[in-house]
Amino acid sequence: MSGRNARRGELGEFLKARRAELGPHQVGLPDTGAVRRVPGLRREEVAQLAAISTDYYTRLEQGRIPASASVLGSLASVLRLDDDQRDYLSELAGKEAARPRRRTRQRVRPSLRRVLDDLRFTPAFVLGRSMDILAWNPLAAALVTDFGQLPANHRNYVRLLFTDPAMRRLYADWETVAHTSVALLRREAARYPDDARLVELVGELSVRDTEFRRWWAAHHVASQRIGTKTLHHPVVGDLDLDWDTLTCATDPDQQLVTWTAEPESPTHERLRILASWAAEHRQPAEERGGRPRH
């Protein structure tokens, strides 16, 4: 057996050993209680979670084909590999760098923060890499959710869509919004394939949500900059909003998203009512991604 084939065989055995250590309940899959012929996860379950075909994973585990860096990253997340195990997997596959890099945490640009502060009747927030929510104004918090009450690492637009039940009720067409967000995230993954934050997010949502897992596996991509949304808001009722995305010239990874309505329309009036409501429930600036007020 050649050295290359030997490494592929060892890679397959390594994957087999790691999946044997995980039960369905550990990765968010239902455990029917039926007796399993082999310990741990089945091949088809690993393939499903990694968004690859069972046939592809079977051939990989049998040492019959090489693995791409992206597939290795997905499998490492599904199998809960630590850094040493990721490095070992990379060495077996002959890849130089399978371990995702930790990118510096983004800070919202001061110019974008000033724009947020000045938008009283327009819901707006700043999106960063992986669609993280970096900052927002009071009306955006009143419209969508109180971002300041969330842990910083949970302030992600896609994560909220799939993990917060209130978001499913808020959007009149949640499925289209969520599907599009996955396509946008897939485009982001192509730009930053080694971003640890993005790998972890995809891994978490793939385990937690069957729809995310199915849409991610479809490999659809999108790059929408404008659009319309209808919301069912619990305070002011139905809202028909146009949204626009403005990219920061000095940092293309930061985008200002604004939601507006036609002047004198029912939605325009309801936004003003919501702004008044938000003013009565306003949080300190540092709790909404802004500057502390002195």
UniProtKB/TrEMBL annotation:
GO terms for molecular function: DNA binding. Residues 40-86 form the HTH cro/C1-type domain. CDD domains: HTH_XRE. SUPFAM superfamilies: lambda repressor-like DNA-binding domains (SSF47413). SMART domains: HTH_XRE. This is Helix-turn-helix domain-containing protein. It comes from Actinopolyspora righensis.
